[in-house]
User: Fold this.
Amino acid sequence: MADRSLRGMRLGSQSLQSEVGVEFSPRKKSLYRTEDGTTFEVMFAADAEVPETWESPRTGLEGRLVGEDGGLVQSVVVETKAPRTHWDMLLERRTRPELEELLQERLELLRARRGQTAKSTKSAAKTA
Assistant:
């Protein structure tokens, strides 16, 4: 069995491919500063959107992006519209008193139907 093993090469631990002709993608360094003053760098692709905050790999604190002038980048606050609920859309079409009136009509209809079904089941039980 020992005569069958391959000698002179560590299989799987070394690549036979060289780095000749390999062109790396363009990158950019982004500098972040945490609240305690420590700074760290993160590499991003040149065309990637750089986030304003990043977790420090050493301390675990959240770091804020440092601009080219050395100051922290101010985040732009974008106002987002609150999502419309079904209730909001319903109130756009009808007023609250109209909705109360519709609710009472539907409840009366349901109560009347229950009363009819209760009577019909009682009469069916009596005949059986």
